[in-house]
Write a structure and sequence with these properties.
57% of the residues lie in helices and 12% in strands. It has 204 residues and is of the alpha/beta class. The protein has a single domain (2-201), classed as P-loop containing nucleotide triphosphate hydrolases (Rossmann fold), CATH 3.40.50. The protein has a 5-stranded parallel beta sheet with strand order 2-3-1-4-5. Helix 4 packs across helix 7 (150-165). The protein starts with a strand and ends with a helix. The relative contact order is 0.18.
Length: 204
């Protein structure tokens, strides 16, 4: 069983991944941020490093998903390969931080490799307003996230809405993070777990 959690920066993906993995007895899989050789360069010169960064993410997530499918384990995954293309690379191109040539090359690679993988059994989208995202980002205090602009978060939210509205690859559960505090409220976590059971098994 493969459950994947998607959402904007600061939506609470990692926290929910940890809580669900613990409750369901699944293995959590997190985004590899700490050992990314391009991240620091990217934040200092986005235009120069955007293509390199996105290719790195694409490759590492393709490796991750093929490992998941090969080993047939029960996984809760923090972020997916789809977000790289439909959200982040597309947004970099829109902002003029990735050339059309690089973006088209990137999307061609993405389209080719996603033909070899299957979608998660359940995709969970954590929808959150910009104020909620900002509160979470400030609370966790990651240095490289300190300069993230509100309009950037807003643009990413628009991309997520467009992608999720057209998502047809598998089962989908949309959760409103503005109304759910699963980190502090066990009832909210219970509601999410019931919703997951209902989506996966049709249990009411």
């Amino acid at each position: 069983m493969h459950i994947a959690i998607v959402g904007n920066i600061g939506a609470g993906k990692t926290t929910l991944t940890e809580l669900l993995a613990k409750h369901l007895g699944f293995e959590p899989q997190f985004e590899a941020v700490d050992h990314n050789p391009y991240l620091e360069d990217f934040y200092s010169d986005m235009k120069r490093w955007s293509f390199n960064l996105q290719i790195y993410f694409l490759n590492s997530r393709f490796q991750q998903i093929t490992d998941i499918q090969k080993e047939n384990r029960n996984i809760v995954q923090d972020r997916t390969i789809y977000e790289d293309a439909y959200i982040f690379a597309e947004n970099l191109h829109d902002m003029g931080l990735m050339t059309t040539r690089d973006y088209e090359n990137y999307r061609s690679i993405f389209d080719n490799i996603t033909g070899f993988i299957k979608a998660p059994d359940l995709l969970i989208y954590l929808r959150a307003s910009v104020p909620t995202l900002v509160n979470n980002i400030q609370r966790r205090g990651r240095e490289y996230e300190a300069g993230i602009r509100l309009d950037y978060l807003s643009k990413l939210n628009d991309k997520y809405t467009k992608w999720i509205d057209g998502y047809k690859e598998g089962k989908l559960l949309v959760l409103d993070k503005d109304k759910l505090d699963f980190a502090k409220n066990p009832e909210d976590l219970g509601f999410i777990i019931q919703s997951i059971e209902r989506e996966l098994h049709g249990l009411f």
